[in-house]
Amino acid sequence: MNPVLTLADLAAWSRPGTSLAVLGHPIKHSISPPMHNAALAELARTDARFADWEYFRFEIHPDDLPRALDLLHAKKFRGVNLTVPHKIIAFDRVAEVDPAARPVGAVNTLRWSERGWQGFNTDGYGLAAAVQATLGRDLAGAHLILLGAGGAARGAAVECLQRRCASLWIANRTAETLQTLLATLAPLADGVPFGGFLPQTPSADLPSGALVINATSAGLRDTDEPPADLTALPNIAAVYDMIYNPPQTKLLRQAEFLGLPYANGLTMLVHQGAKSLEHWSGIPAAQTAPTMLRAARAALGL
Ligand code: NDP
Q1: Which residue of the set 28, 75, 87, 275 is catalytic?
Q2: Residues 253, 280: one domain?
Q3: Residue bearing the CA closest to ligand 1, atom 32
Q4: Which of 4, 165, 233, 292 has its CA 20 to 30 Å from the CA of residue 10?
């Protein structure tokens, strides 16, 4: 794993090759560097254009993000990934936002251009590709129950509506946050039935055969209670949990106990990363995702 770099390292940057970076606070647990560097090494074996490409990680405090983005642009980094808490802050600081990312209000991928940074959000693509790869399901045409109303849930909900899911039901423990998200999404629904409920009182209107997607952070700690009881939801078809560390949350343990197909969020991380690399390199995400998945598993000791 390459070292954790700082703003001072960036100010002194003089590497001649093509550089990519991920910025976060904290960043030390990110497995994006081994994922991307494995894919780049694989590409370089057959394509000399990638021989000098490398992906670095920077610990950047939110207060330093504007300066870091200016420096990265001046030093001509080809691309940048943003993770917690930078995705929303950076949204207002890019020269151009991909129209698909506008309703999400957050960017996780920046691409260098003469005019400034171009911003994209590949998390929604990552979720859709992961659900397809692990559970064999399309978000398009699916009934979806989304748990959570934070940043990840907003991105997921926008993707589900943009892909025209059959219906979207969102559950969150805090009613106010849920209502705010529902109001934000309303203009995007365009006829797709959608609504919200509190996890402890599932709505009677919930469809049968839905895919449950966990976009809460409940499960990151062993002591967390699951964000919903799957037996209280009608006839669930499958469960996708965005959390990948730990690899099996209590929610996924319940899915396994109930005999439901399920998958954790590692594949979402991989597919969003592969899509970022596609924005920077032009190489299709589907080509680099298998190498990234192997590297991600190795980095987590799986
Ligand atoms: P936010 O802080 O923006 O939102 C957190 C959400 O989780 C809120 O809806 C919050 O509800 C809910 N929540 C937090 N703790 C609990 C709890 N104990 N019980 C029930 N609900 C709870 O976080 P993000 O949206 O950025 O991230 C959410 C999760 O998604 C994280 O675990 C993150 O690691 C994961 N993620 C995974 C990705 C991947 O590639 N696999 C990509 C992005 C995110 P409330 O409003 O009530 O506080």
Answers
A1: 87
A2: no
A3: 217
A4: 292
Pocket lined around ligand 1, Cβ cut-off 6 Å? 123, 126, 148-153, 172-174, 177, 215-218, 220, 224, 227, 242-244, 265, 268-269, 272
* Domain containing residue 168: 124-264
> Could you tell me the CATH number of the domain that includes residue 210?
3.40.50.720
> Would the pLDDT of 2 be above 90?
no
Q: In this structure, are residues 142 and 127 in contact, taking their beta carbons and an 8 Å threshold?
A: no
Torsion on CA atoms 194, 166, 154, 195, rounded to nearest 10: 10
Residue range 69-127, pLDDT digits in tens: 999 999 999 999 999 999 999 999 999 999 999 999 999 999 999 999 999 999 999 99
Q: Which of 127, 108, 154, 165 is nearest to 243 (CA)?
A: 127
Same domain, 75 and 27: yes
Mean predicted confidence (pLDDT) in 233-247: 96
Give the ligand 1 atom nearest the CA of 266.
Answer: 41
Secondary structure (3-state) at 270: helix
Residues belonging to the chain = 302
| 248 and 133 share one domain | yes
Counting atoms of ligand 1 from 1, which one is nearest the CA of 220?
Answer: 32
Most ligand 1 atoms within 8 A of CB, residue of 217, 243, 275 to mutate: 217
Structure confidence at residue 14 as a pLDDT band (50, 70, 90): very high
Cβ(262)–Cβ(238) below 8 Å = yes
Clarify whether 87 is annotated catalytic. yes
